[in-house]
């Protein structure tokens, strides 16, 4: 009996320790219970990726229309097409009576379009606009371009320009809508002042490779397009804008060609692909002696301006390779 009491006390003490340990474990489990709302909210940002943490998927309702993006003409092309629809469609009028002088003195500064009456001739105005790295001839009040670089829009070539008898013709100023073409499509009804403005309007002029300008001649979009296909859309759009500005018309073949080019601007293939057909350069008839006696005679024959190598050109008419400008 004396030994039983200590044993019982030790058993009761051990039981108390076990009960305390179990109670502690229960308390710890309660503190980490995932059903506790505050702990769940706190853990959410680190365990759940909400929609705001990543870019939303691109829905088909907000994506650009694939058909329009790849086959429809660009906005600028659509505007050009809309303007084209406002132009009258007629056949060519007779070329009878056409002379370069019908459009005034070549490269005249006496015009009411941009750069008119600035003291410089139009040819050099355009060279200064279209060439880069230019050097100006001394003593010309910063008018005359002595040299520069041309990134030719018609051919994609890079051409070094140096003013001179044997070199000036490498870069020529093209009338985007040729004077003869304009004459046969409404310019005969313009006043002399309007025709002079037309011939010197910077919107209708572009410095280009001389060879490309000669191949174009007086061709319209139905007979000639720039070899550089990436520029054709802009080229045709410029022709349309100029014809609308000066109330000139287009032929049906010309309109069809323009429409094909503009439709293809964004990748659409028209029923008949536009092709480049080089027109025959205009033929000028020189004086029987082989040269024109004067610039007046060259203009009367519709040959001015004259470039080195052309029939009728002679150094006595000019000293920089471009005679009777």
Automatic annotation (TrEMBL):
Excalibur calcium-binding domain sequence ranges: 291-325
Record field: transmembrane: none
Polar residues biased stretches: 44-74
Domain of life of the source: Bacteria
Coiled coil, from the record: none
InterPro entries reported for this sequence: Excalibur_Ca-bd_domain (IPR008613), GmrSD_C (IPR011089)
Region of interest called Disordered, as start-end residue ranges on this chain: 31-76
Protein name, as recorded: DUF1524 domain-containing protein
Organism: Gordonia mangrovi
């Amino acid at each position: 009996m004396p030994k039983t009491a200590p044993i019982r006390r030790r058993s009761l003490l051990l039981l108390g320790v076990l009960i305390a340990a179990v109670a502690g474990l229960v308390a710890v489990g309660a503190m980490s219970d995932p059903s506790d709302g505050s702990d769940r909210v706190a853990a959410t940002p680190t365990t759940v990726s909400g929609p705001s943490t990543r870019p939303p998927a691109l829905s088909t309702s907000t994506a650009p229309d694939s058909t329009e993006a790849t086959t429809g003409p660009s906005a600028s092309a659509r505007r050009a097409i809309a303007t084209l629809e406002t132009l009258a469609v007629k056949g060519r009028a007779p070329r009878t009576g056409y002379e370069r002088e019908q459009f005034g003195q070549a490269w005249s500064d006496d015009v009411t379009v941009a750069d008119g009456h600035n003291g410089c001739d139009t040819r050099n105005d355009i060279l200064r606009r279209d060439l880069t790295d230019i050097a100006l001839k001394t003593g010309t009040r910063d008018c005359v371009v002595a040299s520069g670089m041309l990134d030719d829009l018609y051919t994609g070539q890079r051409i070094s320009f140096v003013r001179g008898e044997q070199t000036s013709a490498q870069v020529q100023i093209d009338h985007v809508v040729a004077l003869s073409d304009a004459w046969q499509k409404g310019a005969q009804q313009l006043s002399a002042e309007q025709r002079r403005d037309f011939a010197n309007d910077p919107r209708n002029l572009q410095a280009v490779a001389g060879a490309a300008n000669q191949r174009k001649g007086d061709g319209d979009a139905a007979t000639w397009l720039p070899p550089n296909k990436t520029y054709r859309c802009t080229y045709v759009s410029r022709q349309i804008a100029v014809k609308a500005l000066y109330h000139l018309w287009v032929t049906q073949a010309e309109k069809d060609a323009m429409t094909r080019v503009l439709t293809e601007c964004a990748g659409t293939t028209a029923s008949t692909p536009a092709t480049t057909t080089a027109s025959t350069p205009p033929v000028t008839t020189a004086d029987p002696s082989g040269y024109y006696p004067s610039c007046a005679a060259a203009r009367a024959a519709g040959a001015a301006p004259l470039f080195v190598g052309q029939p009728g050109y002679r150094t006595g008419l000019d000293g920089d390779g471009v005679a009777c400008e």
